[in-house]
């Protein structure tokens, strides 16, 4: 087929011996075994502390596209630690990650992570490494604190009412936007009207 319009002239350079340059994955099973052995060796070294590292908070993924998903965050905020009654140095010494930058934007997430901290605190066993009280070693008495996946909630189909048919999302959003933009102006006008009377 002849080339049409103002496009690049096709002259691909297939001169290399590509058959000898194919990336193969024959080492995949051996790599799997090696990773497993490394994990087990690490577990023996850090025992009785958890292999997964410090305890992380449950946070929401960013942007509207992913904010229904939950994942592990960097560390607990200072408000969460304060609500749980744990000091920052103590938290870091008993295997709790701390994030000094994170801010709580909802009460629900704050309470959820506070509950997570309290549950961890109740199950953690402190083994003193040295006579000094600050130098402690942590051990979980039962299991890891995995972040549970949120169950998918599906709404059942229902018949459309007249109110649903008349509803316009565009008009509703526009009205809210206009109301928020004109709030100050309307309040100013109302005050001026009261002063005139």
TrEMBL record:
UniProt region (Disordered), positions on chain: 142-166, 178-197
Protein name (record) = 60S ribosomal protein L13
GO MF, one annotated term: structural constituent of ribosome
GO cellular component terms listed in the entry, alphabetical order: cytosolic large ribosomal subunit
**Taxonomic lineage of the native organism:** Eukaryota, Metazoa, Spiralia, Lophotrochozoa, Annelida
GO annotation, biological process: translation
Keywords, sorted A to Z? Ribonucleoprotein, Ribosomal protein
Q: Which InterPro entries match?
A: Ribosomal_eL13, Ribosomal_eL13_CS
Q: Which family does it belong to?
A: Belongs to the eukaryotic ribosomal protein eL13 family.
Listed Basic and acidic residues bias regions:
152-166
Q: Which domain of life is it from?
A: Eukaryota
């Amino acid at each position: 087929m002849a080339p049409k319009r103002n496009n690049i002239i096709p002259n691909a350079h297939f001169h290399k011996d590509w058959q000898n340059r194919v990336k193969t994955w024959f080492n995949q099973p051996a790599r799997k075994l090696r990773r497993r052995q490394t994990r087990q060796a690490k577990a023996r070294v850090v025992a009785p502390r958890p292999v997964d590292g410090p305890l992380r908070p449950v946070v929401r993924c960013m942007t509207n596209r992913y904010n229904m998903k939950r994942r592990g965050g960097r560390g607990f905020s200072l408000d969460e630690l304060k609500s749980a009654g744990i000091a920052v140095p103590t938290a870091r010494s008993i295997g709790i990650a701390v994030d000094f930058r994170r801010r709580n934007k909802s009460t629900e997430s704050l309470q959820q992570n506070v509950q997570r901290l309290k549950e961890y605190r109740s199950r953690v066993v402190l083994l003193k490494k040295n006579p000094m009280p600050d130098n402690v070693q942590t051990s979980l008495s039962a299991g890891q604190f995995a972040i549970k996946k949120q169950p998918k909630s599906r709404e059942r189909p229902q018949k459309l009412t007249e109110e649903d048919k008349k509803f316009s999302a565009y008009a509703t959003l526009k009205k809210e936007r206009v109301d928020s933009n004109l709030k100050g102006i309307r309040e100013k006008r109302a005050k001026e009207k009261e002063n005139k009377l």
